[in-house]
């Protein structure tokens, strides 16, 4: 079995004889980012992954290949593995595994936790993705095949990893600096080159983001995927045959963000409203090119968020004595709220945000206008339906 190593793309090989092998891996997305982990070289990183794939992770990889190609694959049929260091984030340092079996190549992701912070998240995230994927009704998250440890020679306790699906053809995206007066979204495509989204594709992007997050919202328990952030690259997109699709690659938490323990219909609707208001704010936040200044997307994101929210809500069932589907009840509930009530609710939400967070300061400056935009977008949506 041949194993080779690359930095970012298969056009950039790295070997033990090259200087890059001994260079430390970046410990975050931002230049000068400090992490609570000791320095790890690219050589250490690649050797740890190799050790995992040859030992504890061997059975996990075979399971993934049996699922992706055919159920009769065994170790000796693996011809080649390319390990590509894709990027370096605040929590993980994912590697793309390109595995060739009997002339067929499949891609997988090996999420690697190096820092203590990353290690605290990764096992919990593995469990959460598996939990949210159990009923099979949603296909927005990667399938996770297994979790394990990747030893680093001379270093304890080593790295923690999980092996999952690689979303083929999907790429990270961010709002980027531009001379244009409107929000410009750039898609990072290392193969064919970066490109900008058209206005209709931008609307579709944020609509699908809202739809995905609402799909995983549980009206019975008020649980939701949180935290998430566009700046962290949590969502990726693909455009094929002029159709845009979005996937979610990370679930760092899943919990209720409201303290209400009541489960009557009104409480369900109130909690759902808080979820939507929060979603409408967070869907507008990013950092320039993922690492720069905090940026607030244009007003069109609000309407896109409402569209995606209601699309997913329409797929949910009836709850707690509701005689109609929950989206019908929520439409009526939302229509009863005045602009002043919504403004007060948005102000309350801002008060719950961490005061020291730079994003909070940006939200505070935008929230009054955002509330007005949200109210008008809701009225337009309700009239159209």
Can you walk through the features of this model?
By secondary structure, the chain is α+β, with helices and mostly antiparallel strands. It folds into two domains: 2-165, no CATH class; 171-384, no CATH class. 37% of the residues lie in helices and 23% in strands. It has helices spanning 42-54, 58-68, 116-132, 199-215, 265-282, 300-313, 326-335, 339-352, 358-384, and strands at 2-7, 78-85, 95-101, 104-113, 144-152, 155-165, 171-176, 184-187, 195-196, 223-225, 235-240, 243-248, 254-256, 285-287, 294-296. A six-stranded mixed β-sheet has the order 1-2-3-4-6-5, with helices on both faces. A five-stranded antiparallel β-sheet has the order 9-8-7-11-12, with helices on one face. A two-stranded antiparallel ribbon has the order 10-13. Helix 4 packs across helix 6, helix 5 runs antiparallel to helix 6 (300-313) and helix 8 packs antiparallel against helix 9 (358-384). 36% of the residues are buried. Mean pLDDT is 92; it is low at 31-37.
């Amino acid at each position: 079995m041949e194993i080779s190593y690359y930095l970012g793309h298969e056009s950039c090989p790295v070997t033990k004889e090259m200087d890059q092998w001994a260079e430390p891996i970046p410990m975050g997305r931002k230049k000068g980012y400090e992490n609570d982990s000791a320095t790890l070289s690219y050589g250490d990183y690649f050797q740890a992954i190799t050790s995992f794939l040859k030992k504890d992770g061997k059975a996990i990889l075979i399971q993934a290949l049996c699922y992706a190609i055919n159920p009769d694959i065994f170790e000796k049929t693996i011809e080649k593995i390319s390990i590509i260091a894709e990027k370096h984030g605040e929590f993980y340092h994912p590697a793309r595994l390109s595995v060739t079996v009997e002339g067929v190549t499949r891609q997988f992701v090996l999420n690697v936790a190096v820092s203590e912070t990353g290690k605290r998240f990764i096992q919990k995230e593995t469990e959460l993705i598996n939990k949210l994927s159990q009923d099979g009704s949603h296909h927005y998250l990667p399938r996770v095949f297994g979790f394990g440890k990747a030893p680093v020679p001379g270093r304890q306790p080593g790295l923690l990893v999980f092996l999952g699906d690689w979303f083929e053809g999907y790429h990270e995206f961010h709002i980027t600096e531009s001379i244009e007066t409107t929000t410009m979204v750039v898609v990072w495509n290392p193969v064919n080159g970066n490109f900008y989204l058209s206005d209709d594709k931008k609307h579709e992007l944020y609509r699908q983001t809202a739809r995905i997050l609402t799909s995983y919202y549980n009206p019975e328990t008020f649980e939701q995927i949180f935290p998430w952030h566009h700046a962290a690259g949590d969502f990726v997109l693909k455009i094929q045959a002029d159709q845009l699709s979005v996937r979610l690659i990370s679930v760092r938490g899943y919990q209720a963000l409201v303290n209400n323990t009541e489960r009557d219909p009104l409480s369900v609707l109130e909690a759902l409203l808080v979820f939507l208001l929060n979603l409408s704010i967070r869907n507008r936040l990013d950092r320039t090119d993922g690492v720069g200044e905090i940026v607030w997307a244009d007003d069109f994101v609000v309407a896109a968020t409402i569209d995606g929210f209601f699309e997913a809500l329409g797929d949910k069932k009836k709850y707690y004595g509701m005689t109609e589907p929950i989206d019908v009840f929520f439409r009526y509930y939302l229509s009863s709220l005045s602009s002043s009530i919504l403004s007060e609710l948005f102000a309350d939400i801002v008060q719950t945000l961490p005061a020291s967070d730079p994003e909070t300061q940006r939200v505070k400056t935008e929230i009054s206008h955002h509330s007005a935009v949200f109210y008008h977008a809701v009225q337009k949506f309700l009239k159209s339906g």
